Amino acid sequence: MKQVETFLRVRYKDTDQMGLVYYANYFVWFEVGRAEFLRSLGMSYKSLEQSEIFLPVIEAYCEYKYPARYDDELRVVTTLKMLQEVRLGFHYDIFKVDKVDNEDILLVSGETMHAFVNKKGRPLVLRKQNPFLWRMLKEFSLETVD
């Protein structure tokens, strides 16, 4: 199982009037984790799109446990949870980094599901469109359905 860790810091603009991170920002950080996961495999969203493979989000879920606040350091852990010929799913855990007690606090867990589509938005079978990418992702997926 491959996990990619990405670190970031909560900016003031990420918070709401109560001083807590606005709930939708966690989905932005999921995207950051997802992009870094792909980058760790030697590819990027840009290179996928240049190959005419697009990954729109078709489902998104987030369970909020504790809020993050301004200037918190966060650790986003991204895992490729599921791979099918026409879609893939990622799992994310976002932790508040605790450098004092060395026990990071789980703030949110979530998932996103993505379809493989072409430039016109039509589904494509990744195994046929890009066999190399299919094999690479298959190697790192927790669950693969052929």
Please, could you describe this protein's structure?
Helices cover 25% and strands 35% of the residues. It has 146 residues and is α+β, with helices and mostly antiparallel strands. The two termini are 18 Å apart. Strands 1, 2, 3, 4, 5 and 6 form a six-stranded mixed β-sheet that branches. It is elongated and about 50 Å long.
What is shown here, in short?
By secondary structure, this protein is α+β, with helices and mostly antiparallel strands. The protein is 25% helix and 35% strand.
The CATH topology: Thiol Ester Dehydrase, Chain A
**Spatial gap, N to C terminus:** 18 Å
Helix content: 10-25%
> What is the β-strand count?
6
**Discrete helix count:** 4
Low-confidence stretches: none
Whole-number radius of gyration? 16 Å
Structural class by sheet pairing and helices = alpha+beta
| Second rung of CATH, namely the architecture | Roll
What best-fitting shape do the alpha-carbon axes yield? Answer: elongated
How does the major sheet shape up? 6 strands, mixed
**SS strand fraction:** 25-35%
Number of spatially distinct domains? 1
**Mean pLDDT rating:** 93
CATH superfamily: Hotdog Thioesterase
Return the CATH class. Alpha Beta
Order of helices and strands: EHHEEEEHHE
